[in-house]
Amino acid sequence: MGKIIKKHYLKITFQLDSPLCIGSGRNDITDQDILRDARGIPYIPGSAVAGVLREACQGIMDDKAWKYYFGYSSTNTGNKVKSDNDIIESQIIFYDATLVGDNKDKDGNPKYRISQRDGVALNEYKSAKKQAKFDWEILEGDCKFQTFIEISEEQSDVNEKVKADEVLTNIAKIWKETDIRFGAKTTRGYGKICNIDIIGRSFELVKNPDNGIEDWLEFNLFDDESWEVGYSYEDMLKTLNEDKKWTLKDSKKLSLKLRLEGGLSIRRYSTQCSEGESSPDQEQMTTIKFNNKKSSDQDKVESQKSIEEIAVIPGTTWAGAIGHRMEELIEGSKVTKFKRSEKDIQSYHYFGAANDKDKEKSLIYFGESRLTGGEFKVMSRNAIDRFLGSTAEGALFTEKIYIGGETTLDISFGDPYNTAVVYSDDFINALAATLTDLHEGYLAVGGATSVGRGVFSITDINGKKFDTVKQEDGENHPVFDKLYNTLNTLLEKKEARDGKQTSQKE
Questions:
Q1: Which end of the chain is more exposed for a tag (fewer CB within 10 A), N or C?
Q2: What pTM does this model have?
């Protein structure tokens, strides 16, 4: 280990923009309980932060420098350790991301909630598969986290291709300019963050040994006053030459604004009885939004609670509906083989794979959709005896659904960091046709679709509104053409050799 000449630190503050699913490995409450500290408060471990940033840096950083700063072991690749060069200790320390402050609103109520989500695997008939029901805990709300990153610059680093301060500045750039996510189910809308604030501090321990070492010894990582003389993210970028800035990959995202044409039923099965009245037998899945307006003593009534329930469509629901329809059109989950490196050729699945043969991360990211502008309704329904045509005995139930409103469906493509994904013309064609079916009401989302639930129409594609034009005989659907052209440009695919694509709904 060389002589340490500098110490560099980052303080990073961020908020959750979608639920966090980070498992503890325990199943005392659900099939996957959320990770908690000794006080019972959820947090993101430093290992999770390190893993995300290590993956993000692998494809854009010099390989030698990447191994040097993030650590490396040949055993991770299945090889045996033959020498000391096969094991490299990480030069970066990643701290746990913990909830900062008391995370309470102006009325003293917690600004987060640990709740449960349910999942079930469905067959082609939308019936539950045997032993495919499961649940997990999530953290949701306006949670504010804080974490730290520390890196030591050694005397031996001087001749390294990438300097320690350059690495830390580029890591800050990844935080600010890429869509990094934490925890599990990140390809299905979980773990997204926002409102990222970064402060840096550096200490010279050689050029100015007296004051530098003294300042460093007085520096308290967890004291806000120690960061008052720190420098901002913008100042960090100014000190970095353009040729030293890592080129980050642009996010390829399709954003669709949708209008709900009726009711929606994404069921939450873990219902509870409320005081005074029983809950419906089935409830629409929701997340929470906090009202930051402080209520007066006179206004503290039921209608003015600080927590508002927001109807949501999880990314898992979107992925299941869209992926299944695409598989009906083509073998949509398969990716043609492509070369990642000279020695590594792998075939991928667009929607991921988790079986004995293949275990691949999904290359399509579906965001969680929140609905606004509609309202909740409690309805009663009866099951009808198919032989008598009358009400089935004991089959009266109530359900809470969401009616009307708008939402946004965000679909991101590819590995955001280091994988050059190849999308076939068949894939683009099938996805455009599937989303056209969604627009026309042929593809409904959620439960009770046989009674008209879960029907949407597209009003906006990537920020551009369009008017539905009447389809003439022999022409493609105008929405299909718009979607296909957008995806074709987004995914950098040329027009098909056999001419204009044809919609599956002609």
A1: N
A2: 0.82
